[in-house]
Amino acid sequence: MNIAPSKSAVSKIPFDQARVDRLMEEAGIDVLLATSKHNTQYLLGGYKFIFFAAMDAIGHSRYLPIVIYEKGGPDHAAYIGNRMEGGEHQNNPFWTPTLHAACWGTLDAANLAVEHLQKIGKAGARIGIEPGFLPSDAYTLIRKALPEARLIDATDMLERMRAIKTDAELEKLRTASELITDSMLATIQWAREGTTKAEMIEQLRREETNRGIHFEYCLLTLGSSHNRAASPQAWKKGEVLSIDSGGNYHGYIGDLCRMGILGEPDAELEDLLAEVETVQQAAFSKVKAGTLGGDMISHAEGVLKKSKVAAYTDFFAHGMGLITHEAPFLMTNHPVTYEGTYAAKPLEKNMVLSVETTMLHPTRGFIKLEDTLAVTESGYVMFGDRGRGWNRGGIS
């Protein structure tokens, strides 16, 4: 299905056009060529094709959605997708004036992108691309077909675009966090002596799916072990359980960690979780619009450094939204390999943070809390703010 462009075909643009245009101008980009699932989803107002939601490969190639957006020229925007997406457009029309629902692989998608850029007079423009999400065959085709164009890495610009969430995005992130928290607490209550890690992970998948969440992963430990992979290891009385799950609601990520105990926690366990909570609260106390991201990090790290558990405990914070690690990037290579480019920048209203403190205790096991916060003018709002103590297993 091909739909020719016309100004009358432009429907409501689903993002802040003025902000995106400003970011493109600052990055020296004339036209965007977005090819990642998360950025095409953002630019299309939340749409992601269900057929390729969990895979990309088909035949000898792969799915390559492309959104083309010209700075200041929404009437020249285009979406290039799979042939089956024509049906999606019939039911819920895409906002872009031009639609090419015609592709089965990377090269036909890249060819259509080149043709569109030539048609709108941008064959020699500064084109923003996503190097990490543009296959080499598609990149080579575009480079050869548009020799006068300057291909610019638009990754940072697109990350900045997504950093400030809309109210609708915040609601999706809140829903994801709430439903994942409910699912983890229900799984802890369901599990009992003899239940294996693999069985718990499967139960969590069912809990999340039944609540309308797309299950992504579960990292789970039992007892003194620090191994979070699925296994036949069974829960024993008196042992701790850590359950860390990521899932998404309409593409937006929930990522939290809660603790369980089979029986009653002893005084040492209460004390250890309190140490983790103290570091979490130290970080929370510095979260508000205008605070430098690095100041929040250094304050929490300073509190942790004075803790008696510092030798085997780590603090980490990162941005999240459509993906689990996105702007604001607050720490460098810790543990994910990217630069903490936002450490010297102020936090802004409607940024979303994941804050986590992880203890690898030598005898009591893996003890962790991970929470999700939305930055406000005066502080923060926490999503999924419950079950942050010791949750008892085997009671359902």
UniProtKB/TrEMBL annotation:
Residue ranges that the Swiss-Prot or TrEMBL entry lists as coiled coil: none
SUPFAM superfamilies attached to this UniProt entry: Creatinase/aminopeptidase, Creatinase/prolidase N-terminal domain
Residue span(s) of domain Creatinase N-terminal: 19-164
Domain Peptidase M24: 171-377
InterPro entries hit by this protein: Creatin/AminoP/Spt16_N, Creatinase/aminopeptidase-like, Creatinase_N, Pept_M24, Peptidase_M24B
Pfam families for this protein: Creatinase_N, Peptidase_M24
Official protein name in the record: Xaa-Pro peptidase family protein
Organism: Mesorhizobium opportunistum
